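Section 3.1: Structural characterization of target chains.
Under the original work plan, the team committed to producing a structural model for every single-chain target entering the pipeline before any wet-lab resources were allocated. The record below documents one such target. The sequence was received from the expression subgroup and is listed exactly as submitted; it comprises 350 residues.
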Amino acid sequence: MTATPRRKRSARFSDIADAAGVSIATVDRVLNERGSVSRTAREQVLSAARMLGIPRWLPEVDTGLVHVDIVLPDNRSPFFQRLSLAFQRMIAMLDRRLVVHRIAVPDNDEAALLRVLAPRRYPRRALIVAAPDSDATRQALQQAQLCGEHVVMVVTRVEGLGSAAYVGIDNYAAGRTAGHLIGRYCPQGGWVLILSSRRDYCGHRERSQGCRDALASLPHLHCDAVSRETWDDPDQCYLALCAAFRSGDSLAAIYNTGAGSPGVVAALRCFAARKVCWVTHELSDDHRQYMQQGLLDVVIDQDPDTQALRAIQHMLAALELAPPAPGSQQGGEFRLYVPENMRGERYLAE
């Protein structure tokens, strides 16, 4: 009687674990998709399973959970509140495989920011961030890129990141636009006070420099070489403007690159003997009210909803979870509002 040939034994989980250099539990989690495993471990397990000829369907490398961090400053200005809400709405519509960690970092706490940018306990694949342009921040983001993380910058750029994407507006062009408009609004000439939220934010530096460069071609207007830093604080805005009025110079206009507008309004009401042109950013609820009252002339709005959308689109395309969306690779566009065209809906929902 002829013996039936024995079937070749298929590879067991222990064989795959030995070949991949991981535990049997890791092999089980990868092949049966039971939990989160790092991309490196998944690749090792699936490569070993294919090499050993395991006779079963194998999952794809990228079918596990994908971790993404969204890191924004804990800034209570209307703009950052709306940007955070925009991300919150869009995250709710993403695939469940995407695990998005929304992290608010205290303003002016570089140590806390660097801890967040450092490698996390989970395998982070992408990072959406608004951060100061400092050497330490730059090095932390460069290290994240070296670890294979995709970096997308919103609101403001950090220089020297190479392949990182920036989906915010052209802040230099926004500043030049402010200077151009001030020139049209102030034919009588005088001094222009430039208030800047933070000099360590590239976006605020670019706005200030753009305004100064535009004013340089207008001989009837002049401004200081260095902007007054206010940290979006109404009290700092108030003190800076009070000092400007008391200096004796003929103040023609104010350009505020950030928030803190209640302080500007308080100073205008106390000291302004005549109309002073005022240009600032974001069509927030208080700015709409100031325009209605005739105090604020022009708002340059950077559309936080679209910035959040483009950041998400770019991140999904970089992770190959969605095709590139039209326009997602380009910077955002800013909008100009004056009393005659400002929108009526609330900036922040009640």
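The CA atoms of residues 9 and 21 lie 21 Å apart.
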